[in-house]
């Protein structure tokens, strides 16, 4: 089982804010039954990606407020932290890289005990999913055309599967670094932050212990030009990601009323396995909170990083 070293300088419990919280009865979009995900290539940000068919399943999503310290990367695969960024607007890519990226690197090292961190992409989301789908249908935008806007991802997914994680490892690092880091534990962790207080479409996270590997379905994702911060060479390639089939055993959670002074860390991949031998990865999705459609759209940024523990074995 992987060892997670908690930060001694950062509080693990985020301060509560004014919010509407509690357990939510809603739905999550899952992979349609009977479809072979290995044959699917999804191009995020295109009209076709918003027209995908889903298995819409009823779920109960529990609020972690008041028990934040009971959730961790090591146990459930996600963790809520209080953390303030000097960057406030997240409009300029260079400013994000110069200000926010070093903050994320420091946070990941302090919280997880990582010896090195390499950020490989980030995505800023500002437009509601419903607004994008409405515009696509009203304008009859072709499936392969770029929409030009990025909204919350309203389907259960994991950004990289094992093969996709290895692709990013190989392409992000030079040969010397790859040789060095391949001998010890490494993984991928996302750091997700609201840009404004979250009133609409919160982020739901599924306890990784409730998702057996057989529930996961590989799909292949190819990011189009100008999608987040993916570089031109990566945009031409397909990367393995994971979706999931619906299951009543999935245990979904969220943190109500998140503010810009809070972040969620999500374990996307880890070479170390969980105690039961399953993969350490966090299924996640935006979701519709009842009666939130008229509220201010959610704005958020996620920073995706390769994380290395050179003092730990590659498998444990």
UniProtKB/TrEMBL annotation:
InterPro entries: AsaB-like (IPR044053). It comes from the Eukaryota. GO terms for molecular function: oxidoreductase activity. Signal peptide: none annotated. Transmembrane segments: none annotated. Belongs to the asaB hydroxylase/desaturase family. This is GA4 desaturase family protein. It comes from Cladophialophora chaetospira.
């Amino acid at each position: 089982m992987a060892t997670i070293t908690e930060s001694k300088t950062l509080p693990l419990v985020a301060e509560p804010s004014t919010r509407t919280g509690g357990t939510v009865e809603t739905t999550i979009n899952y992979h349609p039954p009977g479809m072979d995900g290995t044959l699917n290539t999804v191009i995020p940000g295109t009209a076709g990606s918003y027209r995908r068919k889903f298995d819409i399943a009823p779920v109960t999503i529990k609020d972690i407020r008041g028990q934040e310290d009971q959730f961790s990367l090591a146990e459930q695969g996600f963790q809520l932290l209080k953390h303030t960024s000097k960057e406030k607007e997240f409009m300029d890519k260079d400013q994000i890289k110069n200000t926010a990226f070093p903050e994320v690197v420091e946070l990941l090292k302090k919280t997880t005990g990582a010896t090195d961190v390499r950020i490989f992409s980030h995505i800023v989301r500002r437009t509601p999913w419903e607004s994008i789908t409405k515009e696509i249908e009203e304008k009859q935008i072709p499936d392969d055309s770029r929409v030009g806007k990025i909204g919350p991802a309203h389907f259960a997914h994991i950004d990289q599967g094992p093969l996709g994680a290895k692709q990013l490892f190989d392409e992000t690092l030079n040969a010397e670094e790859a040789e060095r880091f391949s001998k010890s534990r490494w993984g991928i962790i996302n750091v997700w932050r609201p840009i404004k207080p979250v009133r609409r479409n919160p982020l739901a996270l599924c306890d990784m212990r409730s998702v057996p590997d057989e529930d996961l379905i590989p799909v292949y994702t190819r990011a189009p030009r100008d999608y987040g911060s993916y570089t031109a060479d990566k945009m031409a390639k397909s990367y393995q990601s994971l979706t999931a089939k619906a299951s009543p055993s999935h245990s979904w959670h969220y943190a109500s009323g998140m503010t810009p002074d809070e972040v969620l860390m999500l374990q996307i991949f880890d070479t170390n396995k969980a105690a039961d031998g399953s993969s350490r990865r966090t299924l996640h999705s935006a979701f519709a909170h009842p009666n939130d459609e008229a509220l201010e759209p959610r704005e958020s940024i996620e920073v995706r990083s390769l994380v290395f523990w050179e003092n730990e074995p590659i498998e444990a």
